[in-house]
Amino acid sequence: MFKKILIANRGEIACRVIKTAREMGIATVALYSDADRNALHVKMADEAVHIGPAPANQSYIVIENVMAAIRETGAEAVHPGYGFLSENPKFAEALAKEGVAFIGPPVGAIEAMGDKITSKKIAQEAGVSTVPGYMGLIEDADEAVKISQQIGYPVMIKASAGGGGKGMRIAWNDEEAREGFQSSKNEAASSFGDDRIFIEKFVTQPRHIEIQVLADTHGNAVYLHERECSIQRRNQKVIEEAPSPFLDEATRKSMGEQAVALAQAVDYASAGTVEFIVDGERNFYFLEMNTRLQVEHPVTELITGIDLVEQMIRVAAGEKLAIKQSDLKINGWAMESRLYAEDPYRNFLPSIGRLSRYRPPAESQDATRVVRNDTGVFEGGEISMYYDPMIAKLCTWAPDRKSAIEEMRIALDRFEIEGIGHNLPFLSAVMDHPKFVSGDITTAFIAEEYPDGFEGVALNEESLKRIAAACAAMNRVAEIRRSRISGRMDNHERHVGEDWVVSLQGQDFVTQISADKGGSTVTVAGEAYRVESTWVPGQSLAVLEVNGVSLVLKVEKRTSGYRIRTRGADLRVFVRTPRQAELSQYMLEKVAPDTSKLLLCPMPGLIVSMNVSEGDEVQEGQSLCVVEAMKMENILRAERKAVVSKIHAAPGDSLAVDEIIIEFE
After folding, report:
1. Which residues 6+ apart lie within 8 Å of 405 measured at CB?
2. Which of 259, 318, 457, 622 has the most CB atoms at less than 10 Å from its CB?
3. Residues 146 and 91 occupy one common structural domain
4. Does 115 map to a domain?
C-alpha cells in the first residue's frame, strides 16, 4: 500500500480524500494556489505545496506545476478528485512516466470514455442505446445551427471534454444554437483547455439516472446501483438521491449490467459513473461516462456501506476487488443537497465574500439516521470568484425515502451560513415541494416549478401560527431579560405584558401568553400552542418544541421583532403591544430607488465582452454583454427597448454586485 499520496485538487473533495487516506494510515500532500493559502484542505493535509496564482489555468491544471510538487514531496500516487486534471489523459501519462500511480482509470479508458464523442461511438458499437446526435467535430456557429436543424430542436450543445455543467447549453431555435455554441466553446476552453463541441437531441421529460461502477485491474467489475440526479439547474446537479424512486428492479439490473459491460469494453479500472437519460416509460439512453469520482458519490456510499475513495486507492495499488455483485444490496435511502454560494433571490447568481458564520449541523450516525457534511470551508474563510461555488454537500440517510427527506429538512434548518448569498432556502423549499416528495420529478423540475425564479416560500396558515407562538414566547424571554438589565423588575415580580400582536407574511396574529417553569402556553387567534425551548437572547439558532413538534428557527434580532428563516421562508416578524400594532399602520414604507434605466452587474464577475456601443438602440432580449463568474458565462440581455447613453465598463473589468455597467436614455 502507498505511504504517501498527493491530492491534485482543492476544496471539499480534497478534504474528502484526506479523511479516507488518514483512516488508511496514508500521509497526504495538498496543493494550493494564492487564493487557497489558508484553505481547509491545506490545513488538513500532512504537507502542502504552493503551485501558482489563483486562476486554475495558472495553478491547479498546469501539469508541470503538479509534477514538480510530486517530485518535491516524493508522493507515490495521485488522487485527482473531480474536475481540473481528473480526466486529462496527458496528466495520467505524465504520472506514468514518473513512475507515480494514478488513482483513477488507465489512460486508454480516459481517452475512450472521457471524450464524449468517442464514448458515444464505443457505446453504440457495444449495443448500448444512445441519444440521437452529431458525433463529429463542429467547426463554427453556422455548422452548429445546420446540425441542430437536422437533429430537430431542442438540442443540447456540449463540450466534448466537459463536466459539472460547464460548457453546456440547451437551444430551442437557431439564434440560441448560435449563441450557445460560442458560449459553450468559450467555457470549454477556459475550464478544460479543450474547446471541441458536439450536439445531441435534448430529450424532453427526462430523468437523469446514473450507475456507479467499480472495477479492478484483474478483470473484476461491479455496479453499486444508481443515483437519481434529476434536480438540476443550468445543467448542474443540485440534489441527488440513491436509489432512484423511479426505477424498478428489472430496469436497475439492466442499466447496471450495461454499465459494467461498457466499462469492461474499455478495460476500465477504478471508480467510474455511467450516466443515462431515462424517459417516462423507463427507456434509458447512454449519455456519457465520467472516468472519475463523482461529486454525488456520498449517497452511494451511504446505501452500500462502501468507501469509494478507499476502493480507488486499493485498485490503484494493484489489489483485487473484495466485493462481488451479490454482496451489493440497497440499504435504506440517502439524500444529498449541494450547498452553493449562489443567491437564489437573484436568479442563483454567484456570490463571493467571507463566511462570517458557518455552522453546519453536527454529523452523526446510528441505526436509524445519518447526517454527513462534506465541506472544504470554515467560518471566517473566503469564497473565491476563481473556483466552483460549492460550499458543502449535506447528506442524510434513513431507512426509507420519507425519513431521509425529513432528516434533510431538519439538517438544512440547522445549517447556519452568513456573509454570502447561498441556496439553503431553495434546498429547503425543494424538500417540501409536493412533486419532489412524491418522486414525480424530471430534469425540468426547477424550470417548471420556479419559472420566474425563486422568491422564497410562502408558509401555510398553521406554520405561521406555530412561528407566531414561538416568536411570542421568545419575545417574552427577551423582555424579561431587558427588564432585569434595566432594573425594572427583580426576581420576585414580573412586569412583562401578556398581550402581543405578532405580524408576519402580511398577517397579524393576536396572541396571549402565560408562562410556567416548563415553558409557555401561547394562544394564537384563539388556539393554544405549548412552546418549550432553552433559547436565550443572542442565540442565532432557536430549537423549540411547539405542541410537541420540533421547530428550528434561524433568528436575528431586529427592531420590534426578528428576522426568522425556516423551511425556505425568510420572514420579517414584528412583535408589538396592541397599541404599537395599532399605530404601526401609520408608518411610511421605504421606497426602493429607480434602477430601471441602469444595467447593474448582478454578481461579482469579469466583463468578457461588450456587445453594444453608446448611442445604440437595443431591443428586448438583445444581448448587451457577457459576464463571467465562477467559471460560468452569463449573457445579460435588455429587458425592454432602449437607447444606450453611457457604458461604464469594458472587457477585462472586474465588477462588484450592483456596479453600473450601462446607462440607458
Report:
1. 335, 431, 436, 437
2. 259
3. no
4. no
Q: Annotate 483-505 with three-state secondary structure.
A: HHHHCCCCCCCCCCCCEEEEEEC
Transcribe 389-452 into DSSP letters. -EEEEEEEEESSHHHHHHHHHHHHHH-EEESS--SHHHHHHHHH-HHHHHT---TTHHHHH-TT
Instruction: Tell me the mean pLDDT in the region 326-346.
Output: 95
Q: Is the pTM of this model over 0.90?
A: no
Average pLDDT over residues 462-489: 86
For the chain, the domain total comes to 5
Q: What is the pLDDT of residue 487?
A: 58
User: How far out from the chain centre does Cα 514 lie?
Assistant: 44
The residue count of the chain comes to 665
Residues acting as catalytic residues? 288
DSSP assignments along 27-73, one per residue: EEEEEE-GGGTT-HHHHHSSEEEE--SSSGGGTTT-HHHHHHHHHHH
Burial profile 168-185: b = 16 or more Cβ within 10 angstroms, e = fewer = bbbbeebebbbbbbbbbb
641-655 per-position pLDDT tens digit: 999 999 999 999 999
Same domain for 254 and 353, yes or no, is yes
Average pLDDT over residues 23-31: 98
User: What is the tens place of the pLDDT at every residue in 529-545?
Assistant: 999 999 999 999 999 99
pLDDT band at 493 (very low <50, low <70, confident <90, very high): very low
Q: Are residue 338 and residue 397 in the same domain, yes or no? A: yes
Residue 590 belongs to some domain of the structure: no
Do 320 and 343 lie in one domain? The reply is yes
Domain annotation covers residue 109 = no
Same domain for 484 and 404: no
Domain-located, residue 236: yes
What pLDDT does 517 receive? Answer: 83
- Counting DSSP H helices and E strands in the chain, the numbers are 17, 40
